[in-house]
Amino acid sequence: MPQRIRAHLRSDTELVDLPDHALLGIIKIPQPRSFSPWWLITRRIAYAIALMGVVAVLVYTDKGGYTEDLTFVDAVYYSAVSLSTTGYGDIAPVTQHARLVNIFIITPIRILFLILLVGTTLAVLTDETRRTLQIQRWRKNMRDHTVVVGYGTKGRSAVSALLADGVSPASIVVVDTDKDALEMASTRGLVTVVGSATKADVLKLAGVARAKAVVVAPNMDDTAVLVTLSVREIAPNATIVASVRESENVHLLKQSGADSVVISSETAGRMLGLATVTPTVVEMLEDLLSPDDGMSITEMIVTAADAGKSPRELSPLALGVVRHGELFRVSEPAARAVQQGDKLLFIRGLAPKDAQADAAGER
């Protein structure tokens, strides 16, 4: 069975073995907002006119060095036909000085003028080269990032929570097959990878092997199982948080290597049930889950100075204590006194020390 699953996860062509320039349509790294095409064209035309003006002034300054005594219009005419390489031959330099000016000044300007004429093609080539180098640097330097598999409702919400918690958009990689969804992710400054995350090579391309955490949020539970299994095989030390629709599939995600599993349908169902009885409770829960404003749940590491104290002493808003990966509610005996290295979960709004000071002032 594991061999069959691995065969399913393996593709015929390993994307990670492709050269960087072949990944331009797969990996997209957000770019700074560029100027409009009309502005770029106008700017190039202005550069071309400026170059013609410079050459016309040079030629008119040395007007006696040509086959006839030039007027300024003649100088402009010579500049146009010379820079465009038309070269009618009716005006030509005859003195040594004029010929040296043409060799060392006008000829380089002529080359620059030609570059402007084919600027669109060069811009495309330059852009592709720049993006290829960006992908090369990104694949080499990306470390301790977060990979989000699936950019549907759950994936977008997970990204919003990460961004609200201060995570840089550049350290989040989104993997999906929906190009419209990936385009939406790219507008938020996220790195995107096109492909099915059930394929190991796509996950490798997203840097899963060096990722700190992976959020598995596809639309189907069986896909979540396959992705989790593949991620755990590639990145044995990464934290995997997976989402499933049905609770009966939780054990499959756990067996596949997920560290934490969120049941989306049952959580939504409980919220709906509470809303019919105690809607204000649901409003409070939504406020806690909202990362942008209101209250939110956060954690702090217990130091040696705070060891032995009650969680309520450190924060009146304490909810629980995490010890060796296990959660204890503050009402449980194991959480009556915190230990060094424990994680204290509390409602953010009052910092623990500030909350402690406020509580002492009330007494």
UniProtKB/TrEMBL annotation:
<dbReference type="InterPro" id="IPR050721">
    <property type="entry name" value="Trk_Ktr_HKT_K-transport"/>
</dbReference>
<dbReference type="GO" id="GO:0005886">
    <property type="term" value="C:plasma membrane"/>
</dbReference>
<dbReference type="Pfam" id="PF07885">
    <property type="entry name" value="Ion_trans_2"/>
</dbReference>
<protein>
    <submittedName>
        <fullName>Ion channel protein</fullName>
    </submittedName>
</protein>
<feature type="domain" description="RCK N-terminal">
    <location>
        <begin position="143"/>
        <end position="263"/>
    </location>
</feature>
<keyword id="KW-1133">Transmembrane helix</keyword>
<feature type="transmembrane region" description="Helical">
    <location>
        <begin position="103"/>
        <end position="125"/>
    </location>
</feature>
<dbReference type="GO" id="GO:0006813">
    <property type="term" value="P:potassium ion transport"/>
</dbReference>
<dbReference type="InterPro" id="IPR036291">
    <property type="entry name" value="NAD(P)-bd_dom_sf"/>
</dbReference>
<keyword id="KW-0812">Transmembrane</keyword>
<dbReference type="InterPro" id="IPR013099">
    <property type="entry name" value="K_chnl_dom"/>
</dbReference>
<feature type="transmembrane region" description="Helical">
    <location>
        <begin position="45"/>
        <end position="61"/>
    </location>
</feature>
<dbReference type="Pfam" id="PF02254">
    <property type="entry name" value="TrkA_N"/>
</dbReference>
<keyword id="KW-0472">Membrane</keyword>
<dbReference type="InterPro" id="IPR003148">
    <property type="entry name" value="RCK_N"/>
</dbReference>
